Amino acid sequence: MRILVTGNLGYVGPAVLRQLREEYPDAWIHGYDSAFFAHCLTGAEILPEWRIDRQSFGDVRSLDPALLQGIDVVIHLAAVSNDPMGDRFAAVTRDINQEASVALARAAAAAGVGHFVFASSCSVYGVADARPRREQDALNPVTAYARSKVGTEEALAALDGPMVTTCLRFATACGMSPRLRLDLVLNDFVACALSTGVITVLSDGSPWRPLIDTADMARAIAWAAQRPEDAGGPHLVVNAGTDSANYQVRDLAQAVARSLPGTQVSINTEAPADSRSYQVDFGLYASLAPRHQPQVTLDQSIAGLVEGLRGMGFADPDFRNSPMIRLRVLQDHMAAGRLTDRLVWTDGLRRAAA
What we know:
about 15% strand
């Protein structure tokens, strides 16, 4: 089996590469990434990419279709990856997350790729009532990031041909990584607790968020990479996570405080309602992928983050201005003249590297 993984040099990529190598030890794995965040290593003693057979650098918007020849599985992680970046780069988010994703899927189908796995998001539910959202429920995306995921899902559903496509609507990512992000709710709370002893919840704490550890995201991706067509049909959209991991934000803060005694929790009870609040029903995923269900508990995710950050000597109260905040990394690249406002490496940087 030959696998192409786009966006492998990000937060989730290292866990995906590890899981693929464990589950498919004889697979030939090719990583393809723009390398915006390749240097953002955190506590890694060895490059995570040692597990793969080839690493290429390039913009997914201009991926050479020749790279798809002979590929059996495409795992598409590459994206402008959260709401703050999507808000700052709304047009680019559509270009990368939607237009390039659809073009890649069409090229993969034309090249005879058997399986296409798309990393979507439960953020497509946006604002929802108290009932957990199922895949067939109406969508209510409220950000450029979420809208790009909806647009790609719809386009993949309209593809013709025998390629099996799987859109994994992931819960909110969390957990330690060799390229750690701290612009995620649980990760932020752990970083706050370790660096200042105080977790400040900017909302009133009531919004719902389903969570999934990166290791469990990787399990879902490994399942989708070889999903039989009779397990969900030729095109599947499925919520990826577990029912027990639907949490209110205040509960996450309290869980971190329990793990780090002495931590104070400050909740802004006067804050306006957060527009992103949803519970999710993961029953379909449980029925289709019983051997690839999430295994990492909330307490284990917190413990992994604590161990990883302490192992790095982390104690930075200004971490929101560090390379562990992805928007900050892009802004630093742009300020240094390395990236254009369309998130394209500049010609000057390419000439300097030549």
